[in-house]
């Protein structure tokens, strides 16, 4: 074919010249003449520049005719458009249902328990609310029906408001484990105890609360035991509390200090900063009874300066921190600064051994301040009766510079030890802020009344110029502990063996029928004796057991209008 007679048209298969096909050196000495054509063929430097347009690439190769037709068209019922819109709708609806609808639906489908009031039905003093349907309630479901009501020693009808039968084995009482109880982790230094209290020493077994004391070196002490508190979780104001207990050890081995007691919620047992100037005050008068040492700045009256044992000072107390003499706008829990507040203590029992007879006995006491002259309260039989003088007598210990003890001692069953047998102990307590002369506490040992103190037992004492001490009106919480201190009773290590265990079968709290329905009577923060805000505002003192004074915790005493002036 004649090269000059053929015309090559551009196509995707045409072979454009390149540096590969055209010599750039003297590699070829001769070349053929270029093809002659009647039309000029465009030369492309790269092969892809010669590609024909893609028929389906409308973006890079638009079709004006087709595009104009599409611009004029409208398809509101396009299936693809509706599918896209529906998908977007479903995604949005799903997100709304997940994050808004589900919580609302769950709220109405799975409603929690109805909370009658603060600290009742599952709320404790620290604000924790149970979320589980099997969470413990105020009244243990295992409490027998015939134990849910009682007739009081005062003739009143009482109803159960709180109980724990301890029937579920393996319970623990570390912080946060239980809504009503917490085991402490500290050394109870105020009474110079020989043991360290550790939560591991307390559990439930065979339907009983078990507190175990072991001889083991820890925290520079030789013994470990347990203290269980209901502080700021469950409190009650007036009522009857009963516990069924089997004492630890042996009735012929003195030295242990098992106890069950109650204390005002403004003081946390073992946290010394909280009890300084508050324990064991139960006083609502503005007078010399609120002063440091129960004396004026010049150490008068003489009766208080020398009214203690053998002519020593009657009191070493720093003064009532939260007294009725508190200056206006001062640091005070309320409801007003003129309300005397404190931390009274009522002991259900503290067990010991009478080493003269080797008979076990319990002291049942009300600890209070300020003090009578020489710690002598009115123990006349019409004011402070003992019901069986063959087994009960007034305690020879009446107090000291840090407390006055209104106390009696009762012999107990020597077989109710070491889990072999149980005995019941308790007290019935009534106080009325509007009729304070009605107040009383009646103690129970061996399931029977042992003795009673009345408002007149702790009446005014003109000798030391103090007014009426109060049968407690503060909300009280429950404490179980197994301790050991030479200050309470000397240890007979020859006969004491370890480990030893204290067993509690149950604890039950009743209140008069006209009181039981009032949620504030089972609260740690009743409006008439509030504690919650004060505790929250002084958290350092209430959360650190290593602080022994109010000053160490970073706080100052409010001024006393009579002693300091405002």
From TrEMBL:
UniProt topology in membrane: Single-pass type II membrane protein
Xref: Pfam families: SKN1_KRE6_Sbg1
PROSITE patterns linked to this entry: GH16_2 (PS51762)
Keywords recorded for this protein, A-Z: Cell wall biogenesis/degradation, Glycoprotein, Hydrolase, Membrane, Signal-anchor, Transmembrane, Transmembrane helix
An annotated Gene Ontology molecular function: glucosidase activity
InterPro entries: Beta-glucanase-like, ConA-like_dom_sf, Skn1/Kre6/Sbg1
Entry's Gene Ontology BP terms: (1->6)-beta-D-glucan biosynthetic process; fungal-type cell wall organization
Keyword set includes Membrane: yes
Keyword NAD: no
Family stated for the protein in its record: Belongs to the SKN1/KRE6 family.
PANTHER family: BETA-GLUCAN SYNTHESIS-ASSOCIATED PROTEIN KRE6-RELATED (PTHR31361:SF1)
Protein name per the record: Glycoside hydrolase family 16 protein
Provenance organism: Lentinus brumalis
Phylogenetic classification of the source organism: Eukaryota, Fungi, Dikarya, Basidiomycota, Agaricomycotina
